[in-house]
């Protein structure tokens, strides 16, 4: 088991150890290591960690976490995506070619208020944007049909209108009744800037989760020189191990104080997590931020209602005006 952990956390060193051998020998060793450690390691983690909630009570538990820690009501997760840089398969042409001029598969992830992954979709080719990956994902399909037992709409305050439970995301994603994203930056009123700040507080959880993942697992420091299917399994193993460590007594070793972004409400500034100042990995990169401005009247109504709530006596935070 320890060899599997080492493979995931320090693949760069594993590769360095193989440099005296010919390339074919390295590929052979990597393949053997993959089959004998990573798969067994992933099976072990599957018995310890689960992802997508399927009960109303679990979704409500996640929403309570976001409201308690980040003061965003009815939030069932923060959504984002990353490119995982890989070695392209032979004869794949531009299928995996992304806007950064590298070859990649896309990791789409939903994160709870405790920086744990509750949904991951890995393997979509790198040519597709965040929004495109989401639109084709099983998560989007399940939310459209409400097959995940997400709680029914409910007022967030006394005398309020029933409001659906929702995901927070950035501008790369479409605005929907179940996905809230910031207002466009052009012509923002103070009220809309407040909304964007409040949404950003909840959404940056997924940004920090990705930052921790990329900096704790050395496999992401350089491109993963394996086929897409093997890279997909390695990424899933890392996400599983991340959840396992965040849920165990080792969480304060895995993510010690200062690891993630925090707010100082006395000086009104954001304190960056330590992962932002460490060496930045080249094997995991941002998705292109090109979102859609097409949305339904109902999705707009929900965002505008939240904007009004965050600027009201019932929903405002004492320090929010100083943070914009």
TrEMBL record:
InterPro entries: HARBI1-like (IPR045249), HARBI1_dom (IPR027806). Coiled coil: none annotated. Residues 79-243 form the DDE Tnp4 domain. Pfam families: DDE_Tnp_4. It comes from Amphimedon queenslandica. Signal peptide: none annotated. One of its GO terms (molecular function) is metal ion binding. The keyword Membrane does not apply. GO terms for cellular component: nucleus. It is found in: Nucleus. Its cofactor is a divalent metal cation. The keyword Nuclease applies. Belongs to the HARBI1 family. This is DDE Tnp4 domain-containing protein. Keywords: Hydrolase, Metal-binding, Nuclease, Nucleus.
